[in-house]
Amino acid sequence: MLRGTKQAIAKPDGKLNVNIPVNIHNRFDIEVRDAKTGEVKQKAQAFNVVCDAIWNRILTGNTYFNYILYGSGSGTPSVSDTALFTLISYVGLGNVNTDYDLTEGWCSVQKSGTINETTAVGQTITEIGIGYDGTHCVTHAMLQDMNGNPITITKTDTDIITFYATVFVHWNPNGYQNGKILITENAAKGWFSNLAGNGTFGLTGNVYTRIGKTFYATLGGKSANPVVNIASKSLTWTFGRFAVGESNGAIRSLTLGDVAIIDVDYFGLSNYAITGESIGTGDGETTDFASHFPIKTGATVYVDGQSVTTTIDYGLSYLHDISRDVYTVTDDYNFYVLKGSTLLAGEDIEYLINPHRYSISAVGIPGRGWGEYGAVSVFVSNDGEDWYKIANNVANYTASIPNEYIGAEYFKFEKHRGAGGFSAMNITFVTDATDTNIHFQTPPAAGAVITADYTPDCIPKDTDHVLDVSVTLTLGAYSGNA
Q: Nearest 5°: CA angle at 150, between 148 and 155?
């Protein structure tokens, strides 16, 4: 096959600006128990107004979920509140419980505090809030019954009152499947859990350009500290420029540390349409050619300036890279297999499909190393029902595939923990997949110039272009209850 020299592509604006919205809210569940009988006498709840003071605490790297304040005042809580209407006192917090749900898009931190039977006797409690100290609140609400009606709690000398305070962080759980942003499990258990009050929210960051929707198939990376804007409740990491010699290739995603993965569809790939790319020169015999980047939509192929009919493998990667078309059949966000060296992350058994039935002759499994990789068992199947194990609990191993399973459609990986806990593993497929994606029925004549216009299935970074990357995390108050 003859391939010509790539010409300059249509120049995008060179700026990749990502905004990740994250919302916070707070709920209280309150239980009054008789100290003598142990019976529950009364229950109350409160859905708090998130006060502006919380953003200053978070964005300056300070804790805020330190105390529960309770008071006896009346009024309508406001985001501008810095204290309860009439403070009675406060309680310290303990018994920390964390939770998250990647499918629904939230994580939470719950802490509890107790007023014993000898404290605040005779006081009427009407309001509550989370405090970063014993005076100043970052959330504020009035007590309600289970139907949302205002109530009070009159404290007696036999009452034990337990406050359960829960802070939730919410994000869009469906973004990545729609070509947007995925918040990772690591974020739900770490970064965003700290945002929910489990610790101090981290303010450093790094970004990587990826040839696939993975953590470790990287083209290049940048680090930056964020610029904090308390007025807009945001942090912006300006990672600077990927110059003409950096991160060249088919960029399929960006990652913000191990917190978020941004599919490049977020930016609108039609903005990166390629016009007049040189595909090659005809020799009168060759019918199969390759574009420089994988094709997403809108391909028109020209021979000597005249459009011709061709067969296009849309989205098909080239140069023996099958993994763009190998995808997961799972609702578990912990598992990613795309482009380049494929990544496995998570703890469940997952399935891969090889829809184009590429001839995969071996699967390469790396050894334990960075992150204390665990070992895996590998299975292959022609129908997704009858499985043949080609590797059992191995690392640093290449598993050959029997002849009857070469070109099999289904793969399955069982992950085993390493000494430090399984974190990630790059799996390499050995294949003879085609390196062409443009197919003529009749070979172009010798000397014919072949060009193409198309929308790439990537951001087409090359030596003709630079990219400036920034990521903004915007905080806000969640409008619903949980």
A: 125
Tally DSSP H helices, then E strands, for the chain.
Answer: 3, 38
* pLDDT averaged over every residue in the chain: 78
CA angle centred on 144, ends 140 and 148, rounded to 5°: 115
Alpha carbon 279 to its chain centroid, in Å, reads: 36
Residue labelled with tokens 């806990």: 421
- In the sheet that holds 49-50, the strands lie side by side as 49-50, 139-142, 127-131, 67-71, 87-92
Report the alpha-carbon distance of residue 107 to residue 98 in Å, rounded.
7
Q: Specify the DSSP class assigned to residue 230.
A: T
pLDDT grade, residue 338 (50/70/90)? very low
Q: In what order do the strands lie in the sheet with 376-381?
A: 327-328, 350-353, 410-415, 376-381, 388-394
> Which amino acid is residue 50, in one-letter code?
V
- pLDDT score of 218: 64
* Chain-centre distance for alpha carbon 19: 13
Tokens of 95: 């018994």
Residue of 139 and 469 predicted with greater confidence: 139
Which phi and psi angles does 271 have, rounded to 5°? -70, -10
Residue 204 is predicted with a pLDDT of 62
How far is the CA of 180 from the CAs of 11, 207, 443, in angstroms?
22, 16, 40
pLDDT of residue 94: 87
CA gap 97, 85 in Å, rounded: 29
Spatial distance between the Cα atoms of 221 and 209, rounded to a whole number of angstroms: 6
Question: What pLDDT does 434 receive?
Answer: 54
**How crowded is residue 279: how many other Cβ atoms within 10 Å of its Cβ?**
23
